[in-house]
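Q: Hi! First time doing this. I have a protein sequence and I read that you can turn it into a structure. Is that right? Here it is:
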Amino acid sequence: MTKRFLTLDNVSYTLPDGRALFSQLNAQFDQQPTGLVGRNGVGKSLLARILAGQLTPSSGHCKASGPVYYLPQQLAPTAGSTVADLAGVQPVLSALERIEQGSAAEKDFDALGEHWDIRQRLHAALENAGLPGLSPNSPADTLSGGEAMRVALAGAMLSAADFLILDEPSNHLDRPSRQALVEQLQQWSRGLIVISHDRELLNTLGRIVELSPSGLRSYGGNYAFYAECKANERQAAQQQLEHCKLERRREEQAMREQRDRQAHRQARGKQTRREGSQAKILLDAQQQRSENFSGKAQRQQAARQTILRENLHNAQQQLEREAEIVMHAPPTPMATPRRVLTLENLVLPFGGCSAPITLSLTSAQRVAVVGANGSGKSTLLKVIAGQLQALSGHCQHSGKLAYLDQRLTTLDPSQTVLTQIQAANPDTPESQLRMQLAQLDLDAQKITAPSGTLSGGEQLKAALACLLYAALPPALLLLDEPSNHLDLPSLIALETMLRAYRGSLITVSHDEAFLNALGLTHRLSLEPPGISLSAW
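A: Yes, that's right. Below is the predicted 3D structure, encoded as structure tokens:
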């Protein structure tokens, strides 16, 4: 059996601005399916590109036993691109077509290799992915986000790579496609690294590796085991911090008592010297011994204080690395209308749902929109937000509406996060806005850089902050796949915030664990050709 491996040997990467993203990473990946996790912006996608050979590290080396196939999390098919392009098999198909037309060029046979049945295998892969209507020449730029990901995953499974590296592969996938992905990955017999924050997907992998500013750390189990270990680490870090604080208080008390005793001895010595009851030579000797002892005690105390300060600093740093992400729920809108949204016989301009939609949403309702990829969920949100025109019917909403789309178009990539959140809430002090962004793990350096330079998860948190921390709180929140790209601590914070939000909510998501955490009231299913509204 061929041994497949990926090895990092003292790998470091420095950003163009001179910041070290990670330093001296050492790790070996074998055929055990591995989940790579870590906070947004820590460098997971960059590390994946280094492992795939697409990016050269600033120092160190990466070695692979064979070809590595990397599937990025952002799929943006260009105009004119085809399904074969998105699946990564167009060069092979083109070579096959030229050979079938009579080409004897060596480069065509090299490109084709042993893949004479690539056309049949692609057709079978698309059918297995639930996309039997697509052909290699079908346009890719008309596919939904979930359909595009399924095509790209089909191409990854067709590869002859020793290792697959999949970056957030379950993003945009509907429920059946997520289950199919798990089954596909369980059948994959070669090396596999999955970058993900999908708790259900991570639970199917045998090993979790965490990337943090401290480096790479391997946990010998699935996500549930990793989460238990992290909880124990946070508890231990908190206990260590409390212990260090207690030790420092005790040392400070001991120092005060030592100073008091020394001052008492010095006062007694002065009194004895004034009374003249002892010879001067004896008093001078006693004073010298006292001064020597005092100087030694002070040096020992200073050394002890230095050690205690270092221990306290290290304990605080460890706890800060494990600090929770905090998202503040916007205040309840003033004079919230009882009826927030009315849809009457609404027919969507495209998508699989052709039946008219009638819905009345009150201020107490919180709705999940579910359905297969391409059924029209995102289209429905765009129509409600006024970004698309319905074919027919009526749509009316009351109060302020805030809409977060999958592509985060509300965020200007050329402007800083701080500039944009100040524009949304000009009356709030900058210090408070900075504090709220810091609680999202967006530090001063990140919020003063163009938002387009941030990671996908950081951009999502920035876009959420600009919507939720606006001067006028929204009466209706429209969220399209808001859990995509978020790290696990941020995902938990988002769930907590949305539970506390008292306005109306409509969210599109395929993450069942996320939806179950929101306290939803209703489920709107878009199952072509009809729709159904039911209690959650």
